[in-house]
Amino acid sequence: MCGIVGYLGNKQAYPILIEGLKRLEYRGYDSAGIAILNGDLNLYKKKGKVKDLVKSIGGKSTAGTIGIGHTRWATHGEPNDINAHPHTSKNGRLSLIHNGVIENYESFKLALIERGHVFESETDTEVLVHLIEEIQKRDKLDLEEAVRQALTKVNGAYAIVVMDRDNPDILVAARKDSPLVIGIGKEEFYVASDGKAIIEHTKKVVYLKNEEIALLSRKGELSIKTINNDISTPFIQELDIELESIEKGDYEHFMLKEIFEQPKTVANCMRGRINADEGWIKVGGVNDLVQKFTEARRIIIIACGTSWHAALIGEYLFEELARIQVEVEYASEFRYRNPIIDERDIVIAISQSGETRDTLAAIEMAKEKGAVLYGIVNSVGSSIARITDAGSYIHVGPEIGVASTKAFTGQVSLLTLMAIHLGYQKGTIPRSYYLQLLEELENIPGKIEQILKKDAHIKYIAEEIKDSTNALYLGRGYNFPIALEGALKLKEISYIHAEGYPAAEMKHGPIALIDENMPVIVIATNKSIHEKMVTNIQEVKTRKAKVIAIVNEGDAEIKRLADYIIEIPETDEPITPLLSVIPLQMLSYHIALMRGCDVDQPRNLAKSVTVE
Ligand code: G6P
User: Fold this and answer.
1) I need a labelling partner for 585 at 20 to 30 A (CA). Which of 236, 315, 425, 486 fits?
2) In this predicted model, what pLDDT tens digit does every residue of 429-446 receive, in sequence order?
3) Of the residues 25, 73, 178, 356, which should be mutated to test ligand 1's pocket, given the most ligand atoms within 8 Å of the CB?
4) Please, which residues bridge with residue 345 across strands?
5) Both 423 and 483 in a single domain?
6) Rounded to whole angstroms, how far apart are CA atoms 489 and 496?
7) How many CB atoms lie within 10 A of CB 342?
8) Is 570 domain-assigned?
9) Is the pTM of this model over 0.85?
10) Residues of the chain whose pLDDT is less than 70?
11) 353 CA distance to ligand 1 middle (Å)
């Protein structure tokens, strides 16, 4: 949450910062700001999105070859111009951008106020920049050392960049528990929360490690030390992102692009990992740990948001196919519960960004208790990918839309491969079923393609229910997590209150809400419980709800009952979620668009949640 970007070199900083901020807006978009040095400090901050900042700057002076910029997801202090970053020190000499939370800022703030500091904003960040300045002045330190000393005093998470009006030839950057990448150009440096912000300019990067401080100089020198004052050697890597993968192309929104990319991204996730003709599955990370997995007392899957829904599907898959006991945990609950966990457990973390604070903290705790950590991650080189003992990337490419779509199907594809692989290794599924599942998995991209062709029909249904204020999603078995995910997609981007429920459990509460104004979206593709779903639909219809049913092609029985149906190709039950989620993503997209919502940047949400 919050995106930060900095530039030091011989080009004009302004366009680089603005473009970088636009690429980081998925991290938060409550307000934006930039500071550029050109003799004086030019500081511009605005509530709203980067485009609002640009508009407010208009023709004002933006010249300068060193600058920092920020796009905010508010924690301390409401989103307004004043709380927007960058924040400046008491004498205006230092300016600072920050992603994270300084937890003990209040005590410093009170002490600084006593010593004559005046604070304009309600933020923790402004306190940090005042603290750095005070330490710098008091002990006559250079900026890097003042930053280091200040950081030894604060608790919490930070990725910061500090700029000094009196020394326009350096930037100081540091991080702890919030990501920061340094891009290396020709006698120039870029700093950003994420490589996407700088990919246009350089692919040579250094990922700053936890509690490291970097000094970047105009001469092209980069030095890194730890917060304990030990020298670190920068490790230069190549960014593995292509520019077109972070652009919308011909699509109106990133979310739409990402929904329509799924035949390709699911295929990419499975590429090299499966061959139905030859009858094999290879999931690199699992191969190294097959024995650990098959002998594990249980698997604990930790995640947040949409990734948590993928984890629930993982529970059904591992238990049914590989007969391994699974527990699925919300990262934020797990970490504060003193859970029972030891070296006999395997902990799988699922995360698109690989940076979600709660997930990261939860697996750090599991690691301390001796569990083996496995990561299922999209962002290459991210913190979760680095801390886990083994893992698999889902290879779906950068996901920019805040509401997750292709990452979800990538995560579910990977979990499906793992469960089939382990089931076959353990002998809990026969070879014939194993081969059938492999063949069916290879058919999935084509079947997703067929569902995407129903866009016009889904749009028509969206029109019919777009004005609802509530919606209920029902599913059973493998489609229960899909009901949760369908409801989450709708509420995230259209602001319609939606709940996902196990279809049978509906009788214990949500049925009280059902009337003619309540659309009920029923995911009824599981053959094994078809009759039960029919009964559930009858119960809902009797109470006059509008029923939208996702069914297998040719399901005449539900067609007679439901108001609208969306037919999807049939597949084996454990693989169903990869298909049944697609129409729900499309439905949410169209409804949100019809309601005039900002599909890619829904209010209050952020894609990479790096605060607790
Ligand atoms: C945020 C995003 C969701 C995402 C969740 C977990 O809430 O808006 O789309 O599912 O974080 O993020 P992760 O990167 O760990 O999968």
Assistant:
1) 315
2) 999 999 999 999 999 999
3) 356
4) 298
5) no
6) 10
7) 10
8) yes
9) yes
10) none
11) 7
